[in-house]
């Protein structure tokens, strides 16, 4: 005997949605989806909401704040990406979506895209402009270094400085240069030098960097945080990251890029060495010129001594030649002594200039300027407040005298159509159109008849 099929159970919307949710989320725990980004929104809460689509379909996506901070590039509409995540159901609306846990651009590496995006952003702000680059000090006396205290970079820098310029002072800020906290640590080191200047022995130039490594290891120097710290530094910065083939965002923002940390040390130490080499070269050239001139004079005297007409004076010429040789040696010694004295005076003048207390005077005038600026601003604000108070009082008086306030209490104005007021019943003519103005609008009417107010009669005394 045929039996009717059993009817399915009756479900509530919530129960049906729960079943769908269990089925979908259990079936699609992890999926990889490629599509085009559209409707991208970075919410103020930090979450990302967008749509992935292709030619036939689309799916809504969400990437939570606790996840998207690991995505290094900034997604934009129209970009082809690959997303990894899971399918979830948003029960209040009965909609399914892809909860994204990782994202990568198609056709270009995530790191390279992030690098190019940040570089373009900073260039648009003018932070990479050549005119922003500051010159390095001629002879730095103190060098600040932001790097790891245990890495190879600091050892390379110190070795070069000891070999090229052992008189320079070095101040190290120990920074973490690799890992999740590296960018914040390096940026803090750069800011520390700007915020803690020594007026008596200032840092003349900063070297910021580390030794070589993978792209992941160098990534701290490709972050916006480090780039802006370099741009805001009050001290000229040399970026020395990795090897010669490694380029980072820090290299483009810094005042000078060194291919390696050792090269950065060579650059700052070469200044003093170059000056000394130039002085030595000038001394050598001067000595050669004097020697050539004296040699010519000697040759002329010898030619005269060999002439037959001067046989009787030959002995005196030999004495003159000997004296000439002695004068040559004395002149050479005098030149060397004068050059040494000039170098010593130059060094001493430079030291006096660095120790001159001009900074306190500058700070005093800057403080005075700040005080005057504050007083000026306070005075302008006080005058503006007084003017606003007077304006508020005038508006209050104007509002008190306004006829609109009278109308608001229940009175009305009666006017001719041309706007003239009807002040007495004598101004009204039967059959005439009138306009009655109330607090919230106007009424149109017509005079049927005028009723003048009865004249007041004097009070009569009562009958006795």
Automatic annotation (TrEMBL):
<feature type="domain" description="Exonuclease VII large subunit C-terminal">
    <location>
        <begin position="127"/>
        <end position="443"/>
    </location>
</feature>
<dbReference type="GO" id="GO:0008855">
    <property type="term" value="F:exodeoxyribonuclease VII activity"/>
</dbReference>
<dbReference type="Pfam" id="PF02601">
    <property type="entry name" value="Exonuc_VII_L"/>
</dbReference>
<keyword id="KW-0269">Exonuclease</keyword>
<keyword id="KW-0378">Hydrolase</keyword>
<dbReference type="InterPro" id="IPR020579">
    <property type="entry name" value="Exonuc_VII_lsu_C"/>
</dbReference>
<protein>
    <recommendedName>
        <fullName>Exodeoxyribonuclease 7 large subunit</fullName>
        <ecNumber>3.1.11.6</ecNumber>
    </recommendedName>
</protein>
<comment type="function">
    <text>Bidirectionally degrades single-stranded DNA into large acid-insoluble oligonucleotides, which are then degraded further into small acid-soluble oligonucleotides.</text>
</comment>
<comment type="similarity">
    <text>Belongs to the XseA family.</text>
</comment>
<dbReference type="InterPro" id="IPR025824">
    <property type="entry name" value="OB-fold_nuc-bd_dom"/>
</dbReference>
<keyword id="KW-0963">Cytoplasm</keyword>
<comment type="subunit">
    <text>Heterooligomer composed of large and small subunits.</text>
</comment>
<keyword id="KW-0540">Nuclease</keyword>
<dbReference type="Pfam" id="PF13742">
    <property type="entry name" value="tRNA_anti_2"/>
</dbReference>
<dbReference type="InterPro" id="IPR003753">
    <property type="entry name" value="Exonuc_VII_L"/>
</dbReference>
<feature type="domain" description="OB-fold nucleic acid binding">
    <location>
        <begin position="11"/>
        <end position="103"/>
    </location>
</feature>
């Amino acid at each position: 005997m045929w039996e009717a099929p059993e009817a399915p159970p009756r479900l509530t919307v919530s129960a049906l949605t729960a079943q769908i949710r269990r089925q979908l989320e259990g079936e699609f725990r992890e999926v990889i989806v490629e599509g085009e980004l559209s409707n991208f929104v970075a919410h103020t809460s930090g979450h990302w909401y967008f749509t992935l689509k292709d030619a036939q379909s689309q799916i809504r996506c969400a990437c939570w704040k606790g996840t998207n901070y690991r995505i290094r590039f900034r997604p934009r509409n129209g970009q082809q990406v690959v997303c990894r995540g899971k399918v979830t159901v948003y029960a209040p609306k009965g909609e399914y979506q892809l909860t994204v846990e990782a994202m990568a651009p198609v056709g270009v590496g995530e790191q390279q895209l992030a690098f190019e995006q940040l570089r373009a952003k900073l260039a648009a702000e003018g932070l990479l402009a050549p005119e922003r680059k500051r010159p390095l000090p001629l002879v730095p006396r103190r060098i600040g270094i932001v790097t790891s205290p245990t890495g190879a970079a600091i050892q390379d820098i110190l070795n070069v400085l000891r070999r090229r310029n052992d008189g320079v002072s070095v101040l190290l800020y120990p920074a973490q240069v690799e890992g999740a906290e590296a960018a914040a640590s390096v940026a803090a080191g750069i800011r520390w030098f700007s915020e803690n200047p020594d007026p008596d022995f200032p840092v003349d130039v900063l070297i910021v960097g580390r030794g070589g490594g993978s792209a992941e290891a160098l990534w701290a120097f490709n972050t916006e945080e480090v780039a802006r710290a370099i741009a805001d530094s009050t001290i000229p910065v040399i970026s020395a990251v990795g090897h010669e083939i490694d380029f980072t965002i820090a290299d483009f923002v810094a005042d000078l890029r060194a291919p390696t940390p050792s090269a950065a040390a060579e650059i700052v130490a070469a200044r003093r060495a170059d000056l000394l080499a130039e002085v030595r070269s000038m001394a050598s050239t001067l000595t050669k010129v004097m020697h050539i001139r004296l040699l010519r004079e000697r040759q002329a005297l010898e030619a005269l001594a060999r002439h037959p007409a001067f046989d009787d004076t030959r002995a005196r010429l030999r004495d003159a030649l000997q004296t000439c040789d002695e004068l040559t040696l004395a002149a050479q010694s005098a030149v060397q002594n004068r050059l040494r004295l000039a170098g010593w005076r130059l060094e001493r003048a430079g030291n006096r200039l660095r120790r001159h207390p001009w900074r306190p005077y500058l700070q005093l005038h800057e403080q005075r300027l700040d005080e005057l600026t504050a007083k000026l601003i306070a005075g302008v604000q006080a005058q503006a407040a007084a003017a606003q108070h007077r304006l508020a009082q005038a508006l209050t008086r104007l509002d008190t005298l306004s006829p609109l306030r009278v109308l608001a209490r229940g009175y009305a104005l009666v006017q001719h159509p041309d706007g003239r007021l009807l002040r007495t019943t004598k101004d009204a003519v039967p059959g005439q159109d009138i306009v009655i103005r109330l607090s919230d609008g106007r009424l149109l009417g017509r005079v049927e008849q005028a009723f003048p107010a009865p004249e007041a009669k004097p009070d009569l005394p009562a009958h006795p």
